[in-house]
Amino acid sequence: MRNAVNFFLDVNREAKDLFIFLDEVTTIKEWNLELKYLWDSGITKRAKIVATGSSGAALRKRGELLPGRGLEGNEYYLKPLSFRDFVLQTIDYVRGHSETREFYDALGKLKKTLEKVSTHIDPDINDMYKLLSKIIPFKKELEYFFRIYLITGGFPGVINEHLRGRFAKEEGFISSASAETFVRNVLGDVVKLGRQETYARQLLKEIIDKYGTRYSFSKLARDVEVTHVTAIDYLELLEQSFILTILHAYDFNKKGVKFKGAKKVYFQDPFIFYALKSSLTGRDVNDVIAETLEEEESLSKIVEGVVSNHLATTQEKPVMKEKDTFLWFYYDTRGRELDNIMKINSTFIAIETKYRGEVNFKDIIRIPQVKNYIILSKEDFGLKKNTLIAPIETFLSILDKSTYNL
For residue 61, is pLDDT > 90? Predict the structure, then answer.
């Protein structure tokens, strides 16, 4: 690696702006020491270095050993496409395959409107309502895209494969090879980081079986028959690898996370759920997807996970503003629950996902510490005092990511 970099610099002595891209840098032993050497030798005065890797946990572990070497403020997440990005990046392709002139024209107008309307979540729900009002006329078109997104998630390869199959009128739009490749990458990272694949499979199966429900880590450990410490270790590893999203419950009395309370665990993308369930049950991935989308309860849990992951991307920043500092869920002693609690500046806002018809303003619990409420529905749209009801696909379509999510 050092020889390659030195050769590149030698043959580009006269160049003013150089970029060095080190892909899959984590495959190099002690790669962090090489980056430290490059910084200390002054190379970064001539060249910008971009280091990437598919193992988020490995990047973070070694990256923490590079203080003061230009890493501060220069770390970014590259996650699957958000729904907004998905729509903006596929709309021209879908438009080119439109079967009616009406749909073609509507997609053109939708694209122009979306490019002008976005938010990182505004604590003032009146402003949110005004933004959503500009998108509501395109609800039918966004429903079309959201249905596709619930199948493919945000992975470009899966999206491309599905869209090609959809417009070619093929059955089984996603190949089992795509799911297998992803599963191999997930389990391969676990092994590379010194953990056992068997334990990882057991935990992942239990997470799928309990999907969208709240439970303690000790309960999960008992069900998988591993120690509490082992369960936490694997869960944290999978979250750092961008496979899982772990939501902690918030305690308003203590003004912090309930570390010993129940948790909710979601996958960071719908396709991760489908691929892993396919592998763990031995069923075709298309059958898993079809079954999930047809069952109302299963689908609602997938949608809850999509919402939680989107909310995280609106605010997070590596190291300095991690998800657990602004996003949680909530439950009280009576077992009543709020899917998401967000803290924006000093204001708490609750977001509840009700992916069903006929949602009204009473379909959410109220707590004194929360100022405003958003209920995400299938159809309804309205504003009443401190509560906003909005169709979920319109809400997600205007959510923009933080500048540290590429």
Answer: no
Could you tell me where the beta strands, DSSP code E, fall in 283-346?
327-331, 337-344
Mean pLDDT of 177-198: 89
Sequence letter at residue 151: I
Which pLDDT band holds residue 302 (cuts at 50, 70, 90)? very high
The whole-model pTM stands at 0.91
Q: How far apart are CA 145 and CA 159, in angstroms?
A: 11
Residue 266 has pLDDT above 70, yes or no: yes
List CB contacts of 392: < 8 A, sequence separation 6 or more: 146, 303, 307, 353, 355, 376, 377, 378
Q: By C-alpha distance, which of 139, 84, 81 is closest to 115?
A: 84
What does the pLDDT read at residue 54?
Answer: 67
Task: Using alpha carbons only, give the angle 75, 340, 325 rounded to the nearest 5 degrees.
Answer: 40
- The distance from CA 79 to its chain's CA centroid, rounded to whole angstroms, is 6
Give the separation between CA 177 and CA 183, rounded to whole angstroms.
Answer: 10
CB 235 within 8 A of CB 246: yes
Cβ count within 10 A of residue 344: 17
